[in-house]
Design brief:
CATH class of the largest domain in chain A: Mainly Alpha
Strand content of chain A: under 5%
Chains: A mainly alpha, B mainly alpha, C alpha+beta
Number of domains of chain A: 2
Helix content of chain B: over 70%
Strand order of the largest sheet of chain A: 1-2
Number of helices of chain A: 11
Structural class of chain B: mainly alpha
Largest interface: A-B, 94 and 98 residues
Number of domains of chain B: 1
Shape of chain A: globular
Largest sheet of chain A: 2 strands, antiparallel
CATH superfamily of chain B: MetI-like
Strand content of chain B: under 5%
Number of strands of chain B: 0
CATH class of chain B: Mainly Alpha
Helix content of chain A: over 70%
Shape of chain B: globular
Mean pLDDT of chain A: 87
Oligomer: heterotrimer
Radius of gyration of chain A: 23 Å
Largest sheet of chain B: none
CATH topology of chain B: MetI-like fold
Chain lengths: 270, 294, 358
Amino acid sequence: MRTRMWKLSLYLFIVGFILNMLGIVSHVVVSSFAKRWFGGLLPPAYTTDWFAYAWKNFDLGQVLGITLLIVVVVVFLALAIGFPAAYILARRSFRFKSAILLLYFLPLVIPQMTYGIPLATTLYRYGVGGSIVGVILAVLVPMVPLAVFVLMPFFEQISVNLEWSGSMLGASRAQIFRRILFPLMIPGILTAGVLVLVNTISNFELAFLLGGGGSQTLVVALFYNMFAGGVRPVYSIDAMAVIYMVMVMTLLLIALRFVRPTQMVFKLDK
Amino acid sequence: MRAVANDEKNEFDALAFFCLLPSLLYVLCMFVYPFLYGVYLSLQPQKIDGFSFANYLAFFSDPYQYGTIWITFSLAIPTTIVVLLLALWLAYGMRRGIFMERTVTTILIMPISLGVILLSEGILGFYGSQGWFNQVLIGLGIIKEPFILTHNYAGVMLALFMQQFPFCFLMLLGYISGIDPSLERSARMLGATPSIVFRRVMLPLIAPGLAIAFALVFVMSFAVFPSAIMLGQPAGTTRTISIAAYQKAFEQYDMSAASAIAVVMGLCQLAALLVIILFRRRLSPAATMGVGKR
Amino acid sequence: MNGPGDTLDSLKLGITKRYGNKTVLDNLELDIQKGEFVTFLGPSGCGKSTALSIVAGLIAATEGEIRLNGARVDHLPPEKRAFGMVFQNYALFPHMTVFDNVSFGLTLKPLSKEEIKKRTDAMLKLVQLTGYEDRYPGQLSGGQQQRVAIARALVLHPRLMLFDEPLSNLDAKLRVEMRAEIKQIHAALGLTSIYVTHDQAEALSLSDRIVVLRNGVLMQSGTPQEIHDRPKNVFVADFMGFRNFFKVRIASVSDGIAEGVGDGIRIRARAGSVVRADADMVMAIRPDDIRAGTEVAPGTENIRGQVEVVEYLGREQEAAIRINDNTRVWLRTAQSIRMADTIGLQFPIDKVVLLPAE
């Protein structure tokens, strides 16, 4: 009896949380289609005009282009830098390995606001603050370690015997890499890529601190327009939020084909 | 024993060096160096030549500034405790899997992937005084006046909770479901009721994970920034230390003072981490042995 | 204890377990008497561990009941059944010392500190772990962990001991030692035990009774000798080490002796009452029951063939003899056998078992 009550309360909590999430999301969606909405369960009249308004007034075409550019470059660089590091950290043991792992772990657990301000200070001093390059350089700080930590277990799964038998069969190191490791690592690369992608798109703090006029990502633009509340109709901001949401949700659905939901946050094993 | 022997083995060669070099350089230049530079800069105030603690003295002598530490703690500590307790309860209940687990976890992680900005915008609408939450409660006759849950302390707590809960829950779920289920079974066979199993067997085994989760959630909450602006009163009751640092840097363009505040913020987080680490030491050193091996 | 009393006089099972529409245990019926050592034997996935977990109360049966001394106990949670259990991976609490592990169950009872210490010490002495009280499980060898696990269950004087493949994580030598120890403790304390294993040697050496399971169905239940010498079907025979199976048609039955013809040979076996002529059956014999000679002894079946494979096993050799194009016979003998020898084979009539065709 007691265990049944216990289970029931668990499910009630989950249902509550889900309802709350659905409410939060759908409130934004409904509002973006509202002509006007002051109180009342639903708006009295609907329109799609706010999307056109948002597109034009918020330069969404440009913002999306910038976001896409940043995301693609970050994903590519994070994988390119993280892949060899993950290989070594998964395969080799050496003296300072645990120190290096701890160092790579820090950007993931220290809040971005904490290291973002000194990072922004430094990058502005070198003249790359407020530019697309600055945003990319800053966002990569947590993304390179993320790629490393996602890729490492995939390397660990590939038996070192496969590499050894490859070299016994006469393959050079480059051939082993290209013909054995790389094909086997494709799931890992996809997983890491997707996780870096989702985290880059939704990254706020670093993109905010480093982004200037011509280098705002979608989230940052969203924040500025909300912050300038009162000037813009709330429906148009919600329309922009919906565009952002559709993008993230699409990516999330694609992501979930490769990764388990639990992989979206890192594991507690140290 | 074998692990120790393994650590002593040195397999660092040219290949390892060149593979590690790009990422190591990146982290050193973009993470370690700015940190050190920030500390250095904070000791070089704008208006004074040479080293000086003027920035820190200014921060700690102005209640409007040092008050942010208290405000931030008063947001982060309650949030962390609530998040941790609820996540522990839910994760423990779900440790052997539940109905439609994948769908449920997907929805639970939605706040993480949607990002804090969208979440805050949604909370503004949904929990606002005109939002569905209050409308439904008033409609059901539960309350007469709407709960004011936005543009105040409660709003920031709400946003923090929704951001941190999924994260903490998934961490603990992974940790708890990694504990060998036969431990629980054997305790039952030895006569322990479910509540004794939890208290005497599972909780001591979960404790190290709980400590880490506490530290991570606290540190993340302590840096609360956009939701404190969007859902709170950024000039008043929810002016957190991040806001103070941001204003110094990007509104007053005093990078030196901003760095000082960032350093204070980092030290507060570090202090919390140290407390947790010392607390973990006091837990039995063997507590982490053998957990999750199987 | 409530209802059934503190001791076990009899345990009666009749349980079915289904997951969805997959039946993992199909109405397993069993009567266990006080002091008996019963083994559930079968390959992995046969339902033996499921059956044990149901008896323990760790999982619920889909249908059926468990009666202890005539009273139903299937509704009781595991902690109320007062059964002891030893798990495959020992399941020692990693955060507790050996002493705390063994005394765990005692501390849940209203006992004085001195009483707990006395009983724990006595139990540690029984399993020869005195002096290891303050070690953690991670600091013990596999065999020592196993002893702690056994002591932890025994210290509560369980009315029934359940063993879930307790030796499968040990190396071969230790396994044999621990086997003897379990047997000794069982006898010394007058325990009633259910033991689950996939290892036939373990089952034969420990049990008073063996229950062979396959896909959740009881294949045969009997004493080790019955199971070993008189398997009732091909599955049990195969599991117990019969390596030669011949599909035969019964040509004649006379004087309790059936003659089967098939696979190009003619074999005789003692027939039970149900065997009739013209029935399709299987005849089986162990490799070590076949007699061999390079010359065929007069008056026996004229089976002979050429050696195709020789496996050296130390004191003996096992060889495959090609009888005809379809049939090979496995033979185990201490005689020296060389490849391509021609060998005559004799199947002693008492060693051939007659089994229903699959």
